[in-house]
Amino acid sequence: MSDRMRRVNEAVREVISEAVGELKDPRVGFVTVTGVETSLDLRHATVFVSVLGTERKREKTLAGLTAAHGVLQARVARQLRMKRTPQLTFEYDPTVERGVRMTQLIDELAPNDE
After folding, report:
1. Radius of gyration (Cα) for the chain, nearest Å?
2. What topology is assigned to 3-109 in CATH?
3. Considering the entire predicted model, what is its pTM?
4. Domain range list for the chain
């Protein structure tokens, strides 16, 4: 990946992270934007999010984000002033959940230092 694409991905991630916190949709719970992958032609961007809660909460949050994609896309266009504004799609990123699970497993196996 080129430096330019890394900068574009990071800029889009920052704008969306800020904008998601301001959404008024009750379906959108505690969301962390973990990353963005933008296509080389800047027409599409996949936004990876981590959601705190159950699978049902995750599905509701993804539905809320999908419904708000127009607002988020407009915010990206307004703040970044790119030649093309990418069409946003949202995907769940399980890496945070996996990390928490691995930490739990390590804690279970590690002997207590007390």
Report:
1. 17
2. GMP Synthetase; Chain A, domain 3 (3.30.300)
3. 0.80
4. 3-109
